[in-house]
Amino acid sequence: MSQAMTKPATGPFPDGFLWGGATAANQIEGAYAEGGKGLSIQDVMPKGITAPPTEGPTDDNLKQVAIDFYHRYAEDIALFAEMGFKVYRFSIAWSRIFPNGDDEQPNEEGLAFYERVLDELEKHGIEPLVTISHYETPLNLARSYGGWTNRALIGFYERYCRILFERFGSRVKYWLTFNEINSIIHEPFVSGGIPLPRQGLTEQDLYQAIHHELVASGRVTRMAHGLMPDAQVGCMIVAHPVYPLTPSPDDVEQAMHTAHASYAFGDIHCRGEYPGYLLRHFRDNGVELDVTEQDREDLRNTVDFVSFSYYMSICESADASITKGPGNIMGGVPNPTLEASEWGWQIDPQGLRVIINDYWERWQKPLFIVENGLGALDVLVEVDGVPTVEDDYRIRYMNDHLVQVREAIADGAQVMGYTSWGCIDIVSAGTSQLSKRYGFIYVDRNDDGTGTLERYRKKSFGWYRDVIASDGAVVDNGVAVA
């Protein structure tokens, strides 16, 4: 893989940099029918994003138990503390708080669970970063209301957020309104609770749902600032730089249009209004949104920071005969200069520097990398009689990406922190596999549901502990040293 032809930055990451890890409730908690929890869309997605939903829960859904964080959270948080986490990003399952989504009163057992999680984080001095909605729309809201196509969801979401802010506001400083909000373009059910396949949705349906989510995000951002003056609210988007496949102006223009599709979400969250290129897209495609004056006012409540996931870059071409890349979840065509993971996701550390600079220059808002990591087929072995995983490939991947974060900071971008995705092995969102492992901590559970659920430190566990302890000083421009 090519190296950036620039002078490397020197020294550790900035003081106060928030090092940590990230997970999602539906991929980690389990206990899908305990503690008064209602069904979410995840409970009818036993095969993940890649397969149609089922009518009801099925026994082959690994997320029903996941890695049993619901019962083992204290053990897992202690392991995070051992690595030195400054921050832990987790999501709250909406259907644990409002089982049907449209309930008048919250479920106290669900609130009590997250109180216990916050207790453990405080005990270890770990800052919580809470995602309010992480691909977990209550199933009733999807099937009875049509998900976010229905304006009624704004009010249900507002009620949900008010309870969270009132109960946890004195304990949580950092909030994210929606996980990867721009993914609704590609995955309307998982991202927007819309019970129709993408090809069955008109542009009108899709963008009206998007509008409702954006209005809800703006409305609760205002609410958060009123109820919690010291809190910071961020948006969260899938980040992927878009490169033209060739220098052809046609390819450059196609790359611009693809980039606009994701820029729009950040532009609205940061600027408080629809950008001109998106308004043109509406005119050209006959989209006429139902937008009220209250909606416009709500949109003007802009976020305090921009958070994002980063796994890959994509290429675009105006040549319709070129095959799209099957592995890259955000589409695009394969980049012939890049290697790929075992799941076909192309690996581009330098793209992270590119996107950080791009977002900083575009929005001038602090940035937070809240997902980045490598899904791989790990093999548990014994070293000196201790079970572990010799995951040098993960260390190399993360090291190379952190080098580029450091370079972007040296370029002048303001980066708040970095939370690696799946800091402990979790159930994959895409395929509902446990064999696609991201963590620094191995969880003994297999795709067939067998296993002891015991936790084991991987080699990367010690490496990341050293990264945090040194404030990034051990991140190396050459070969990663574990």
Q: What is the approximate shape?
A: globular
Give the class-level CATH name.
Alpha Beta
The run of helices and strands is EHHEHHEHHEHHEEHHHEEHEEEHEEEH
Q: CATH homologous superfamily? A: Glycosidases
Give a summary of the structure in a few sentences.
With 482 residues, the protein is α/β, with parallel strands linked by helices. Helices cover 37% and strands 14% of the residues. It has a single domain (18-469), classed as TIM Barrel (Alpha-Beta Barrel), CATH 3.20.20.
Report on this model:
This protein is an alpha/beta fold and 482 residues long. The protein has a single domain (18-469), classed as Glycosidases (TIM Barrel, Alpha-Beta Barrel), CATH 3.20.20. Helix content is 37%, strand content 14%. The protein contains 14 helices and 14 strands. The chain has helices at residues 25-28, 69-83, 94-97, 108-123, 139-145, 152-168, 188-192, 203-227, 249-271, 276-284, 293-299, 349-363, 392-411, 459-469; strands at residues 18-22, 87-91, 127-133, 174-178, 232-239, 242-244, 305-310, 314-316, 367-371, 381-383, 386-388, 415-421, 441-443, 455-457. The strands form four sheets. The protein has an eight-stranded parallel beta barrel with strand order 1-2-3-4-5-7-9-12, surrounded by five helices. A hairpin with a 2-residue loop joins strand 10 (381-383) and strand 11 (386-388). Helix 6 runs parallel beside helix 8, helix 8 packs across helix 11 and helix 12 runs parallel beside helix 13. The longest helix has 25 residues, at 203-227. The chain is globular. The model is unreliable at 1-7 (pLDDT under 50).
